[in-house]
Amino acid sequence: MRQYEVTFIVDPVLSDEEIKSTLKTYQDMLSREGGEIVHTEEMGLRQLAYPINRRNSGVYYCVEFKLESPSFIDKLELSLRRDERVMRFLTTSLDKYGVKYNDDKRKGLIGKKKDKDKDSQKDQPKAKSDSGKPKTNEKEAVKKVVAAKQELEAVKETDDKDVQEEE
Amino acid sequence: MASRDDIKFLSNPTIGQRRDKYCRFKRFGIKYIDYKDPDFLLQFVNEQGKLLPRRITGNSLKYQRKVATAVKRARHLAMLPYVTDQLK
After folding, report:
1. Which of A95, A105, A123 comes nearest B29 by C-beta?
2. How far is the CA of B5 from the CAs of A49, A150, B8, B13, B38, in angstroms?
3. Is the complex ipTM higher than 0.90?
4. Fewer CB within 10 Å of terminal CB in chain A, N or C?
């Protein structure tokens, strides 16, 4: 059982339905062939670094999946190649670090500050301490929200009073 | 008595000192380099989009190879350009 990752760029000129059905075809194809889809990341519309087929942007999708036998990869790539909706694709097999990285990325451990977060992904204790910090931040955020709401209510009350006085 | 802080130099003593190079992947324990993260990979290319040599980035050979494959994959997916000017 190995884990793979296929990233492909869909033509942005197509309608939203067609773009989504493109993703669906490959998801269905994978599950039909005994693949287990781990995660699908929709990276959305992005600017391309250089034009492909005279397009300057593309819709990026990344499907992570597990497969028992690698023979299906050839079939998948062939159908991707034949598909006119897909502008570009890349299939990679993930090593254990890649699997872990994607796992951590989904949990949100990576992605704020490049170096610090990436070093926290491997060192478990650090990761725990890091994951502890956002919680306190959340609490603070909640407090702020509550305070803001109270202020708003206070303002409303004063407004109401003003209205009443005017009446 | 003059403490160490009071000593003033006529010229900046740090000029001419070489900063130690190190491999950031080894130091920070980064094991996987994501090819879908162009902002991170931008640190390893010059403004023409070419890969920077190891003598400048200080990467160890193992991770320089991984950086190279990641940059090449990112180029294939149009996340980084193959050729350009004034990338940074």
Report:
1. A123
2. 51, 51, 8, 14, 44
3. no
4. C
